[in-house]
């Protein structure tokens, strides 16, 4: 805590009081630290693929391009790193848009079952390609929540994408929808590698990953879950996770139901 004291004088200039202003420096320092860490992380994350792309390109130009097998291997790496770089830039822009304080989102009453079916149809190729089963446990009638469909599509993509990345071939992903009086609850469950208890509470932080090498190898950026959390909170919902290493993970989020028929 820092205190600034300024004298307070009357018209004749005589001192007749002081104004003491207390600043909560610890909060300012903490925000400053978060900002610096974020910039360090961003620089590191951007440098890694750029360095790889530059390195492999130079090696190709230095002569490796004439050896067909090596040439293909290196170009595949460059392609993969470029894709990751592009994803990183897009996700950073998404984050900065949704984090800006005056973000107002447009929501409409919509059937969450439909958004889920549409998103899963879009990801079908990727899920099948990973050798995973996907099961939808949706109520037999429309489940209406107030949502921005593009944003909820993004939330589902990130959660399903993670379930696919962190579950071994032959595993299963399940999406379940339920509702109470005020909220719709969406759960994305997998029987993959799970998350250790010590990491659980930090998993929604930007760039936090349990296993950096594994996440990178899977093309992860470490931003997916922080985007999920921001979007859900902008909707007035909450997110959470339960997980057991070696057994699987269950992510859930809630979306508020419309308060009247018109909304
Ligand atoms: P990433 O791009 O690394 O997947 P996310 O923000 O989406 O970043 O997730 C952060 C970390 O949380 C991941 O690196 C991974 O360690 C862990 N994680 C997320 N989803 C799952 C899951 N379904 N199963 C196991 N670990 C997960």
Automatic annotation (TrEMBL):
Histidine kinase domain mapped to chain residues: 41-259
Domain of life: Bacteria
Domain (PAC) ranges: 1-37
Intracellular or extracellular location(s): Membrane
Coiled-coil intervals: none
UniProt protein name: histidine kinase
Species name: Desulfoscipio gibsoniae DSM 7213
């Amino acid at each position: 805590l820092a205190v600034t004291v300024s004298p307070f004088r009357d018209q004749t200039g005589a001192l007749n009081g002081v104004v003491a202003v207390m600043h909560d420096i610890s909060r300012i320092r903490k925000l400053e630290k978060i900002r610096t860490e974020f910039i360090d992380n961003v620089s590191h994350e951007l440098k890694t693929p750029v360095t790889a792309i530059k390195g492999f390109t130079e090696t190709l130009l230095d002569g490796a391009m004439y050896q067909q097998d090596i040439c293909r291997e290196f170009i595949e790496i460059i392609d993969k790193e470029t894709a990751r770089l592009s994803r990183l830039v897009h996700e950073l822009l998404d984050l900065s848009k949704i984090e800006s304080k005056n973000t107002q989102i447009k929501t409409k009453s919509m059937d969450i079952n439909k958004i889920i079916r549409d998103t899963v149809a879009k990801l079908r190729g990727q899920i099948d390609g990973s050798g995973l089963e996907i099961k939808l446990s949706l109520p037999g009638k429309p489940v209406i929540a107030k949502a921005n469909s593009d944003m909820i599509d993004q939330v589902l993509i990130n959660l399903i994408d993670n379930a696919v990345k962190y579950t071994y071939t032959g595993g299963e992903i399940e999406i379940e929808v339920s509702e109470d009086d005020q909220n719709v609850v969406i759960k994305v469950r997998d029987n993959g590698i799970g998350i250790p208890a010590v990491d659980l509470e930090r998993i929604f932080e930007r760039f936090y990953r349990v296993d950096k090498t594994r996440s990178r190898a899977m093309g992860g950026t470490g931003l997916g879950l922080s985007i999920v959390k921001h979007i859900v909170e902008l909707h007035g919902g909450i997110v959470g996770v339960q997980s057991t290493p070696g057994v699987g993970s269950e992510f859930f989020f809630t979306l508020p139901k419309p308060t009247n028929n018109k909304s």
